Amino acid sequence: MGLISNRIEKHDIKPGDHVYTYRAVFSYSHHGIFVGGSKVVHFRPDRNFKSITETSSNVDDPTPTPCPTFPDCGFRQPNSGVVLSCLDCFLRNGSLYCFEYGVSPTLFLTRIRGGTCTTALPDPPETVIHRAMYLLQNGFGNYDVFQNNCEDFAMYCKTGLLIVDKQGVGRSGQASSVIGAPLAAMLSSPLKLLMPSPVGMATVTAGMYCMSRYATDIGVRSDVVKVGVEDLAVNLGWTTCSDEEEVVGDGTANSPIII
Length: 259
What we know:
CATH topology of the domain at 7-160: endopeptidase fold (from Nostoc punctiforme)
Order of helices and strands: EEEEEHEHHHEHHEHEE
Strand order of the largest sheet: 1-6-2-3-4-5
Structural class: alpha+beta
């Protein structure tokens, strides 16, 4: 367990683990679920999608050429960004890291970089693998850098938690970090008159950055709800409820349940 991330060796990972690797000289990380058999299920943008951190059409397509080891490496359903890859193609010569769950608030706040851990508790490995394989066949909606990215996919598979507030940031710790840094700088700006020291100003900004990341962690958010993978399409608005289904709750907008 490191201060920045949790690097592991290939022989240490277990089926159901949330793994990730860094891309583009550590500028961002790519996440997936290890399902055993040296295979990873992960979520990436469509080939024609271009984002701030992903500037080539195949930056997260680990198999631009056929994999020489596994014939099914790169399998995905049509119009879906959920992909099955072998571990080597997923890593693309990068190092392997394991995302940590159920960490203490203290440990979470000491992590300098977002997208490495959460205070939320994980579900059993068999449940995690079932979600990943189900989504491989049925998709995970449209890729969105801030609200529905590869880290969001892996975190949903591990926890089954879904963000109800579609206007806010998603589950991704990376997205929270991107938003949290400028927010911390903005909020700390009025304190410049009270703290002329650069060291004091940096300390305040760093503290606000960490707290803004913690406030968006799925383990402490109030706008999350547990959603079964079979009901995910309805809750995300990909489809409408059938006549046999009804969306109910406890009277608030924060607890939709499919029955």
